[in-house]
Design goal:
Two copies of one chain form a homodimer. Chain A is mainly alpha-helical and 584 residues long. In chain A, the strands form two sheets. In chain A, strands 4-3-5-6-7-8 form a six-stranded mixed beta sheet. The first copy, chain A, has a two-stranded antiparallel ribbon with strand order 1-2. In chain A, helix 4 runs antiparallel to helix 13. The two termini of chain A are 55 Å apart. At the A-B interface, helix 7, helix 12, helix 17, helix 19 and helix 20 of A face helix 7, helix 12, helix 17, helix 19 and helix 20 of B.
Chain lengths: 584, 584
Amino acid sequence: MSKKPSIVRFLPILYWGPRYNKDTFAEDSTAAIVVAIILIPQSLAYALLAGMPAETGLYASIFGLTIYALFGSSNTLSVAPVAILSLMTAVAIDKLSLGSETEYIAAAVTLAFTSGVVLVLFGFLRLGFIANFLSHPVISAFITASAIIIGLSQVRHFLGVEAGGTNAIELSTSLLSSVSNTNFVTLILGISTILLIILSKRGLRKVLISLGFKPRIAIVFSKSGPLLAAFVTSFLVYFLSLDQQGVQILGYVQAGLPTIHVPEFSSELVESLLGSALLISIIGFVESVSVAQSLAARRRESIELDQELIGLGAANLGASFGGGFPITGGFSRSVVNFEAGAVTPASGLITALLIMVVTVFFAPILYWLPKVCLAAIIVVAVYSLIDFSVLKRSWIYSKADFIAVFLTLILTLTVGVEVGIATGVGSSILIHLYKTSQPHVAVVGRVKETEHFRNINRHKVEIFEELLSIRIDESLYFANSRYLEEFIFNLVATRPKLKHVILMCTAVNKIDLSALESLEKIAETLHRANIKLHLSEVKGPIMDKLATTDFFKHLSGNNYLSHNQAVEDLRESEPLSSDPKVRL
Amino acid sequence: MSKKPSIVRFLPILYWGPRYNKDTFAEDSTAAIVVAIILIPQSLAYALLAGMPAETGLYASIFGLTIYALFGSSNTLSVAPVAILSLMTAVAIDKLSLGSETEYIAAAVTLAFTSGVVLVLFGFLRLGFIANFLSHPVISAFITASAIIIGLSQVRHFLGVEAGGTNAIELSTSLLSSVSNTNFVTLILGISTILLIILSKRGLRKVLISLGFKPRIAIVFSKSGPLLAAFVTSFLVYFLSLDQQGVQILGYVQAGLPTIHVPEFSSELVESLLGSALLISIIGFVESVSVAQSLAARRRESIELDQELIGLGAANLGASFGGGFPITGGFSRSVVNFEAGAVTPASGLITALLIMVVTVFFAPILYWLPKVCLAAIIVVAVYSLIDFSVLKRSWIYSKADFIAVFLTLILTLTVGVEVGIATGVGSSILIHLYKTSQPHVAVVGRVKETEHFRNINRHKVEIFEELLSIRIDESLYFANSRYLEEFIFNLVATRPKLKHVILMCTAVNKIDLSALESLEKIAETLHRANIKLHLSEVKGPIMDKLATTDFFKHLSGNNYLSHNQAVEDLRESEPLSSDPKVRL
């Protein structure tokens, strides 16, 4: 659709950069401040979720936002750590059972790098269509199950105990065995933090507006609940010395900017993480592109799928060069960015700059931040992702969809995220193939005194013992070609007087090579049983393709333009007897 | 189709057994003799190919034929060892790197058992449709590549050297490194055997008929080339003491009937062979059912796919109880059985009896049979399976089919049979999903002074700047629902005056939940951009399904019975301006 030259498609900044001015800067800056307020605590929290040092979340945000601003095709997507990918990162690396923290960090960096390479490759090879195999309902079920696992994984921070696991069963068992060691100071602090965040989200805007603040300012502060909570809890810990009473704090956080370096990693590590990187790339891409697309369309802008792959891939490569972990466009952040008025990717650059300032100057005060505060931020964020309605919707609408949804949900919860999503994708594909492998095929007869042919099971029609008219209501391809063979051969076996079979091809849009060979086999087999095979109403494009083959040599019968013509012709060549079983 | 009661379906012998008489016995016996003549040397040869002791081939045939006669639904299928499955058996067990021959035999028996269980389960669960995922062209490519590997694997017997490998590269390398040790006596004997078999096949029938033999007798003897070759070479080895000159002989062959026992095996062994058993089951089923179906149809009989699964599964269970390896219905043998006049499965029982007699009384004379004779029998048999024409056919007919064929052929040859067939299946499914993930979607306009709407790129039609008519030429499901979103959003981005989008659903046969959610998202997103979404000409069954949901609440526009009505209605509600870019 877009008529931009290809270099501008590849580097969208060349398009919006030269058009940049004071007004767009003012709009982008406002949005950038709001996003930074949300993203700073999120970056820390999702680093914790991914099992990484807090500062690496900030690094991942800085690099992700900056690089995406250069390559991405969406004006409002906010590319940084997100909950689900952080969980998937932790799960992928836990599987490797690494010994030291250094090795763990190296693996996360390698995962971001590999995922970046996969995305960029997919972009250049135009493989974005792979994301289509994740159906909406499967994604919904996967997100709900992942959100539950994430929530469960944070409970230990509320209890102030050690517990682990990568699925709901492991996590619950582990928590139950250590619940007796609960630290109640931590628990009270955690629950209070959740309440603070929820109340600030719901009430703050109303209160501020009623106090006479401008609506825009009010909105900004209403999004600042998590940041506010971080400040409040840090001060509480510091002044009440809560760390002495067992409240776990973040501790030393590396100040200053990350050093940029090409990550070192073994090919062995890449190999063992490749599967996880592939899943993370596809899930990240689907989530990101879905929000980018709806936001763009609301302003009648468009995004380019292949360029999005390159933008997200580059952002992940950037995150890995800065020592971070896999990232993608976050849903709620991007919506905030959009609604706060971001008009170009520069908004992301400004957010990155703000986070950089925080990283350089404010890292020391993060020392007192209690981990349970970050856990509370995570729990509030993922709670809104839990939505079981897809179970009911799919049950009502289609049992086949329900099976895929149910399997994804249950297996993600009980076995883990990777098995869950893989089963979801696999089962949707199998179910689809199963449904199309049994196409609707009808025996048809002529409605008396018309030229119309209708299903003999639904209409009173005229049929003959020597002639069988079959209408196929689907394109023919490998998964249904054997079904057609079986259908025809079984019909033939019950009709001793049969001399002619006519296939009515009005609804056949495609015939692949497998189906063509099936048709040849049917023609030849019927010929040996002294039955002629005819075709009628074959569409133009298919006729063109069949003409490149010797199919019509195999066909013992004719190819008719109209089905009625076929029946009339065969009737003239020999007498046909009406089937006595059918009453007109 | 069949009206038989279910017990008769499950045990077809209850149907044909009571109707059996002298005439059918005479016909079945003649066919049984011909098949036995072919099958005895084949059983020995394919046992060799599978890496098993010669007698186990005979056991597998006896049990396979007998059990299939009880459960199978085909009157003429000859279920016993076949070349491709024997190769796959050898490949599957070689992977396990077992130490002793006893372990090897136990693994082969376990493989037959597991494969039998898989087939029977598939039959009861009515999962026969899984075979549909093997497209005809992929199977052809797989058989050609496998036949080449089988041929190469037999070359060592002609050279009288040691060599091994499970793909063409390994086999060639191994053969090249040992070719200097060639035993020329063996080589000459081998080449002479091939010539003998070919000549007897081509010339014997003519010669016999011209000598005054009856045609039927002539046909039987013309099929006896391999058996003749076995006799001739055995006598040559015995009288000329060729074994002293390096010709390898079969050696001691266990005489007498096999003992029936439930195979003992470890669950670990079953687990490591499960993948191979699954592939062997599916390949075996597809090959077998394909020939059974065409033979049945030629006599206007029918076979039942699910019963065939049970029949083949039971035959494999039988083979494993008798100490054999995986078996299935062989193509050429079954055709011979059919053409020689077999009318009921009793023909298989009689063949089994004949082979039993041979096993009991003639095993000792097999001592002198040179291995190169069996290799020659295999080479002649698989040579006819090699057929590269599918490459050319698919190249001309469809490049997508060609890719799947090419990958199957190359990967089977260079990596191995299991990777080859798995890639073939995987790539055909991916290619199919890729093709349907980009359905034909056309912007349509009205042909002047008619009520017909046609593609604006192909016809001179009237379109409006405020209204977009889009016709979708495919059912909507998860793999193409995002494509539709992208298509519509991109169109909207280029049409600033747009107020209405109408989706014309004449060719939409199904809408799954994923596609439904995409339509809701499209409706909502367009609504936010002040564009109304309408539908037209939705088919009845889809309307019924949509009515179970709240879709029409999301729809900002209307649902019209006819597309023309939609355009007329919207035209009345507000003035539309003809698109100036389009000339009528």
